[in-house]
């Protein structure tokens, strides 16, 4: 931990709209991320991927995140640009790359003269998710950089609300476009227009909202940043120069404790993103395990987008009261109860065969999602050295990508064990969420209710 070498000045409180602007770009990033999560399995299946192999394709993205997250975190700590600030260059750069991926991925079949469509789709998935990873960590660190301690819970709650507004619209967009007459089916091997236009709209929204955050937020320059964190610039510079292994060795205990919770919660989320389309199509619409192109399959895929939008709505609503609950009852209690609700949501899907009733399952999943996006970062922000805030946030985000990688490996085995009956993957996700809820109680949060 760094030494407190100077008097720590109190960061000025920000207005609600200043806090809003900090995370407004995250709305666009999550718009794109939600489109990816709800539609990539659909796109890859359309391009020829076997359901048994979907986890392998999905592993590309977290594998890139494994490298990108800590590197971007460390680099953003050491960056200062008078126009774009400390975190802004990475948020902006990641958004441009993600937008390119979103415009190209649904058009993979147009590049078959140069590369097989399935591999082009996989490359665009890697570009999109890698770029999303570039933006995630700086947005997390930006809230910690700019807000005083008493506004941290509020800052991450507002961020969670905006994330879920983006997720709701992104998840529902193919369904909405289908409703206004855009074609939702296509010849075998081609992506429907409803999905293609959703990705165009998502990419544009991503870029516009990120530009808003970058140009409306003025980050603290190095001298003010050091003053507000109670350290001199030399001490900050010393912290910034530490290597990955040294930072890992000095990692606060609370990070290891939160990593255990993160492992099981993100393992569960990855299962949901990969297998929900197949699970709903098979379990509710009654499609065969190998069906990836029928009208019933595409109808189920659109409904999964609505379900994902549903859990986004519930997450957004819960985020409006989450900081108040956390302030009154403690962040650990709020986090644990939310994850337990998520476990109930996943397991309940096994017992439901009516498409509308599945929305009840999304209530629990949405509550869990809101807490996952806010509580660990709120806990973490008060336990990290200021000079390495970005680096440690980047390292912490490995607790997001590593579970996804392992979930991809294990998921490929499990789906075979379950004879491709994807609903059992969601039950497995529920069990993982229950474990995550129990592990919250090992976390030592220095701030009590």
Q: Summary?
A:
The protein is an all-alpha fold and 449 residues long. The chain has helices spanning 16-46, 54-77, 88-104, 117-146, 152-179, 193-216, 222-228, 233-240, 244-249, 253-283, 295-329, 331-348, 358-381, 389-396, 398-417, 423-439.
Topology:
Blueprint: H1 16-46, H2 54-77, H3 88-104, H4 117-146, H5 152-179, H6 193-216, H7 222-228, H8 233-240, H9 244-249, H10 253-283, H11 295-329, H12 331-348, H13 358-381, H14 389-396, H15 398-417, H16 423-439
Task: Looking at this protein, list some descriptive labels.
73% helix; disordered N terminus; single chain; 449 residues; mainly alpha; 16 helices
How would you describe what is shown here?
Residues 254-449 form the Major facilitator superfamily (MFS) profile domain. It holds the Pfam family MFS_2. It is a multi-pass membrane protein. One of its GO terms (molecular function) is transmembrane transporter activity. 73% of the residues lie in helices and 0% in strands. It is mainly α. It has one domain (16-442): MFS general substrate transporter like domains (Growth Hormone, Chain: A), CATH 1.20.1250. Helix 4 (117-146) packs across helix 14 and helix 12 runs antiparallel to helix 16.
Q: Which sequence of SSEs, written as H and E, runs from N to C? A: HHHHHHHHHHHHHHHH
The assigned CATH architecture is Up-down Bundle
Strand segment count = 0
Q: How many helices in DSSP terms? A: 16
Q: Give the termini separation.
A: 25 Å
Provide the CATH top-level class.
Mainly Alpha
Oligomer: single chain
The main β sheet shows up as: none
Which ranges are low-confidence, i.e. pLDDT below 50, for 5 or more consecutive residues?
1-5
* Shape annotation: globular
Q: How many domains?
A: 1
Strand content: under 5%
CATH homology superfamily name: MFS general substrate transporter like domains
Mean pLDDT reading: 86
Structural class: mainly alpha
The portion of residues assigned to helices is over 70%
CATH fold title: Growth Hormone, Chain: A
Radius of gyration based on Cα positions? 21 Å
Subcellular location: Membrane
Main location: membrane
InterPro entries: MFS_dom, MFS_trans_sf
Transmembrane segments: 16-36, 56-76, 88-105, 111-128, 161-182, 194-215, 258-280, 300-321, 333-352, 358-380, 392-415, 421-443
